[in-house]
């Protein structure tokens, strides 16, 4: 396998992993922020304080789309900067690419065949109730 081709494949795997990881973290962070703002809103209502600024922040969170940052490939570029890559470097890069690809596929298969693994508690309860013909009130 040629060095440039291996470099491109390794960069592609790292980009895929980067985007999926960023999206997962961003979703969790967004949910955490919304929950915190809703709690603050309930506290403000309880204390008979204005909630307009909290409503505005919640609406901004609902409309905002997070953009995945571009993958920083400086380490790979340093390896490419070498005029000639040794056979050992090529083998290491190939092993890294294979490992990253395998880990990504493994994670996708785990999530596909164990859908409850990544679900939060509320979704698990709702699906369990639905399985026996009941519905959880909203």
Mind explaining what this structure looks like?
This protein is an all-alpha fold and about 140 residues long. The chain has one domain. It is built from five helices and no strands. The protein has helices spanning about 5-45, 50-65, 75-80, 85-115, 120-130. α1 packs antiparallel against α2.
The low-pLDDT segments are none
Helix-residue proportion: over 70%
- Largest sheet at a glance? none
> C-alpha Rg, in Å?
23 Å
- What is the total domain count? 1
What is the string of helix and strand elements? HHHHH
Oligomer: single chain
Kindly report how far apart the N and C termini lie.
56 Å
Amount of beta strand: under 5%
Query: What coarse outline follows from CA principal-axis ratios?
Result: elongated
Number of strands: 0
Please state the structural category. Answer: mainly alpha
Number of helices: 5
Q: Mean pLDDT, nearest integer?
A: 81
Concise overview:
The chain has helices at 3-46, 52-63, 74-81, 87-113, 121-131.
List the defining traits of the structure above.
mainly alpha; 138 residues; single chain; elongated; 74% helix; 5 helices; DEHA2C10736p; Fmc1
């Amino acid at each position: 396998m040629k060095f440039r081709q291996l470099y491109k494949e390794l960069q592609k795997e790292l980009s895929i992993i980067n985007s999926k990881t960023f999206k997962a973290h961003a979703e969790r962070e967004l949910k955490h922020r919304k929950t915190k703002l809703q709690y603050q809103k309930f506290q403000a209502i309880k204390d008979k304080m204005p909630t307009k600024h909290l409503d505005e922040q919640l609406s901004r969170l609902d409309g905002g789309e997070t953009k995945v940052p571009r993958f920083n490939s400086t380490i790979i570029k340093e390896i490419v900067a070498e005029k000639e890559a040794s056979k050992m470097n090529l083998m290491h890069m190939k092993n890294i690419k294979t490992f990253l690809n395998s880990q990504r596929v493994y994670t996708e298969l785990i999530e596909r065949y164990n859908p409850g693994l990544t679900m939060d508690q509320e979704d698990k309860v709702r699906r369990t109730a639905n399985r026996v013909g009941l519905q959880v009130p909203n």
